[in-house]
Structures are given as structure tokens and as C-alpha cells.
Design brief:
The protein has 284 residues and is α/β, with parallel strands linked by helices. The protein folds into two domains: 86 residues, Leucine Dehydrogenase, chain A, domain 1 (Rossmann fold, 3-Layer(aba) Sandwich), CATH 3.40.50.10860; 124 residues, NAD(P)-binding Rossmann-like Domain (Rossmann fold), CATH 3.40.50.720. Helices cover 42% and strands 15% of the residues. It contains eleven helices and eleven strands. A six-stranded parallel beta sheet has the order 1-11-8-7-5-6. The radius of gyration is 19 Å and the shape is globular. The termini are far apart. The structure holds 5,10-Methenyltetrahydrofolate (GUE). 5,10-Methenyltetrahydrofolate (GUE) binds next to helix 2, strand 4 and helix 10.
Amino acid sequence: MTLLDGKSLSNKIKEEVRVEVEQLKQEKGVTPGLAVVLVGDDAASATYVNSKHKACEKAGIYSEVHKKDSSTTQEELLKLIEKMNNDPKLDGILVQLPVPEHIDTTTVLEAINPLKDVDGFHPYNVGRMVSNLDAFLPATPFGVMRMFQEYNIDLIGKNVCIIGSSDIVGKPMASLLINAKATVEVCNSKTKDLKAHTLRADIVIVAAGRVNLVTADMINEGAIIIDVGINRLDNGKLVGDVDFEGCKDKCSFITPVPGGVGPMTIAMLLKNTVKAAKLREKRK
Ligand SMILES: Nc1nc(=O)c2c([nH]1)NC[C@@H]1CN(c3ccc(C(=O)N[C@@H](CCC(=O)O)C(=O)O)cc3)C=[N+]21
């Protein structure tokens, strides 16, 4: 079994980004800028936002974090986004999800200028991604694709079973894999006999948020396992959706949690922010 080491690959990508940012500054006088908006006081969200901010600083990307309390209205949030859309310092705008229930996620995401949509969640970018056109790709599935590339994992003709059909992981993951000529199946919590599906797969990608959802009996010998789950146990330990210990000797590749897909998400966000900075002229 080979570990898909997202920690070290993400460090390599972040270093590439740092060099690229340096060049942009020197050659074009452009400093890429990212704004992250956090609404409410979810502890996990606060941690991620903090990691994103620190990663930006290390890469030389200007970063601002807007912490709004949970009573913030949708109107206030839309106003802030409009201001950021017009702020020339900002190349990327990210609203950390989930937002509180009284705020409509789609309305908020649609308010972001698609050319600043470094999360790739705006319908404009979603449509372009599905059509295999140049677009901002959602950081998590983009990071998974980058891992396949790094470890020379061929996708053409492979059976891939994705567990989880969310807008931020499952659906975009399926699109990217379809475009890469894989054969893709997307399961969800209503899927009957999940095991029958995973046992047809060369690659299983799990993003369901359920501890031990995937166990060794559910995977083929030599399968590739990508664990996008992040679950905090009562003892404070961080685990994915896969029974790692049970599966590790049966599969050919597996991502650990932590140190797998998570760090890749942040690295690809930085990549997208640099991409957005290069589009500055087009936004004017
Ligand atoms: N608008 C928006 N964009 C996002 O990209 C977004 C979001 N909302 N909401 C929540 C999810 C989750 N997410 C993660 C980022 C980094 C790690 C990460 O760095 N994980 C580390 C450890 C983290 C820890 O120790 O808590 C690891 O897996 O090794 C995980 C998860 C981004 N998300």
C-alpha cells in the first residue's frame, strides 16, 4: 500500500505558489489578494479559516478575514460581497460554508463575481467545469485530481464510486472524473446496498461525514481509496469516513486523515487565488 501524502504534496504546491506570487509582484506589480468571510461561531470553520489565512501569508498572498456574528443578515452579507467584488485589492472571495440557516447559500454564492469565485461554487464556474472549459475548480475535488496526477494514477476507463453527492465535493468530483474519461457512479445516503457499488470500483472516493462508513469487506483487493471525510471523535482524534486500519493492507493507495485530502484543499485554494490575480485585467 502507498500512502497518498497530501501533506507533503500540498507543501510542494504551496512552495510553487509562493514562487509564482513573487514573480507576479516583481514582473507585474500585482499582489494576489483573498478575502475569507466567516459567519457564525462554528469552531471547525474558524480553524479552517485560520489555516487558509496563515497559508496565504506564507505564500505572500494578501489575505483578509471577515468574522461576522451569527445574527448577520443576508442583506448585510450581500452588501459586504458587493464591496469586495469592487475592491481592486481582492482577487478571490470565499464565503466559508455552511452559513447560518437564515441565509440562503445559493443567493450568497451567486452574488460573488464569477471571476473572483476561487471556490468555484458560482453556477457560472460550475457550468464551465461541467462543460470542460477553463474555470475555477472547487478546491477539494481539484486537490484529489492533483493527487491522482502526482502518483501517476491513470483514470481512463477506471470504475470510480463516489459516496456523497454534495455540491462542494461529490458532484464536482464526478464532473472532473467524467471529463477525465473515468466511469463514474455517485452514491448517497439513500443508496441501496452500498457495498454492491463499492465492490465494482477500482477507485472509491468517500465524502459522507460518517465514521467507518467504508470497511475492508466493501473494497476490492488493490483498490484506491480517497477519504474526504473529517470527523472529530469524542477523544479529540480526527478520523475520516474509512476504516483506515482495516483497509490499509487491502488497497493499493489510500489517503490518511489527517494529512490527505484536507491539506490539498488549502493548497488548491491558493492556486485558484493566483489564477484569479492573473485575471485582474479581464475584470476591469
Ligand atoms: N467556502 C468553503 N470552501 C471550502 O473549501 C470549505 C468550506 N467552505 N467549508 C468547509 C470545508 C472543509 N475544508 C477543509 C479545509 C482544510 C482542511 C485541512 O487542512 N485538514 C487537515 C487537518 C485539519 C484539522 O486538524 O482540523 C487534514 O486533513 O490534515 C480540512 C477541510 C474546506 N472547506
